[in-house]
Amino acid sequence: MKMExxxxxxxxxxxxxxxxxxxxxxxxxxxxxxxxxxYLNISAANKIGDIAGRVTGVKTFNDMLAAEVIExxxxxxxxxxxxxxxxxxFLNKIL
Length: 95
Hints:
Blueprint lengths: L1 E7 L2 E9 L4 E6 L4 E3 L5 H7 L3 E3 L6 H6 L4 E2 L1 H5 L8 H7 L2
Parallel strand pairs: 4-5
Antiparallel strand pairs: 1-2, 2-3, 3-4, 5-6
């Protein structure tokens, strides 16, 4: 697993990457929540009460930041985050 610090407008994220062959498993973690790639699912985030968003079709952290969030957890909705936001905006709001 690779771990990387990524700076965005409102602070720093921790990026986690696990190379699984055809596509990597990616997570960008902020202070209050995270954005995950398509390998992971929102129902698990809902079960444990996380603030989470999901993006698909990404292979790098930069791809993730530019991607549209296609699904959000219930706690993300309660925090004012929504499907259709770009991941960078989503993450800036939870730093």
